[in-house]
Amino acid sequence: MFLITRAMLVQGMSHYIYVAYRQTFAILAIAPFFFFFFERKSFCALLKLKHVCQIFLLAFLGIAVGENMYYAGLLYTSTTFAATNLNLIPAITFVMAYMLRMERVDLRSRRGQAKVVGTVACVAGAMTMTLLKGPQLNWLRSNENHAQPELVLGVFRLSTQWILGAAMLFTTVAAGCAYVLYQARIADEYPSQLSLSTLVLFLGCIQTLIIAFTLERPSAWKLSWDLQLFTCVYSGVVCSALGLFIQMWCVKERGPVFVTAFNPLSTVLVTIFEPLLFHVPLYLGSLVGMVLVIGGLYGITWGKALDQKVISFGTKIGEDETGGAQIAEPLLDNSEDHTLTIQ
């Protein structure tokens, strides 16, 4: 989606209108499931003023600010720079979650060390893919003449637009971290993630439509039956509707650090598909970065799995020499004879 969206924006589509169309298709996609699995009790609980304000803030941070600033920054900079900035979210989220006591990190345990090292490896791998090149790998090269990548993705130069785009991307990072952390903070108050996702998308759709109608002229709303329509529908249905529901479920079950740790995976996919679709050269630095990201994700998931064992046993968990979890205190005290006498 990085590459396709960048190509569509360079061709002239407004990023404000793109986000508005994306959220419109997202709410149209998730609404049938919402009404089919409608739960009156869980939905009525969301209509309290406190919850409506929380959902409105979630939609504002993640959609109205996050997506609009991101796609504006993508237009004014490049896919590489945009992907690099998004890869800062896992590290910042990890630090903020630890400071807010939303993530437990015991550096004396293997699981705590795995989460820290895994997060650092993910960010380092993503940065390696985007900032370091090294020797060019020749097995994906083709002898055919293809259009230059700059003609498809747009030529970018350091200018006022580039600086403005960088500022917008930094705003996206800040909004993204706040969005995930706030989502984790209030997740336990909502019994149905489907209802919550639907209301976030609905309020986000209203917010983005207001922004687009305010800032764009009516003639810019024309949607072509080509790459524009495909990108709006696919990003709305898959990335926004399905993606938001899965994200909210994962945040509630595993926490914000686990969810944001997968952000660098998008850079891995861009690195894989960019040479195949746009015939951009693949370098050794990208390959090394992919290995670091995959290894980092494994470390984080392994550490979080051990955390889940701690929560499941509900007792003090130690670690053996291999770093696995083991029970340090018995669940039952066998020192006394627990005999049930029936009179």
UniProtKB/TrEMBL annotation:
Q: Does the keyword Membrane apply?
A: yes
Q: Does the keyword Transmembrane helix apply?
A: yes
Domain of life, per UniProt, equals Eukaryota
Q: Can you provide one Gene Ontology molecular function annotated for this UniProt record?
A: transmembrane transporter activity
Q: Which residues form a coiled coil?
A: none
User: What family is reported?
Assistant: Belongs to the drug/metabolite transporter (DMT) superfamily. Plant drug/metabolite exporter (P-DME) (TC 2.A.7.4) family.
Q: Which residues form the EamA domain?
A: 9-128, 168-301
Its recorded name reads WAT1-related protein
Membrane topology category:
Multi-pass membrane protein
Question: What InterPro entries does the annotation carry?
Answer: EamA_dom, EmrE-like, WAT1-related
An example of a Gene Ontology cellular component annotation for this protein is: membrane
Subcellular locations according to the entry: Membrane
Q: Which organism is it from?
A: Acorus calamus (Sweet flag)
Where primarily located? Answer: membrane
> Which UniProt keywords are present, listed alphabetically?
Membrane, Transmembrane, Transmembrane helix
PANTHER family hit by this protein = WAT1-RELATED PROTEIN
- Pfam families reported in the protein's UniProt record: EamA
Which positions, given as ranges, span the membrane?
20-39, 51-73, 79-100, 112-132, 162-182, 194-215, 227-245, 257-276, 282-300
Q: Which SUPFAM superfamilies would you find in this protein's record? A: Multidrug resistance efflux transporter EmrE (SSF103481)
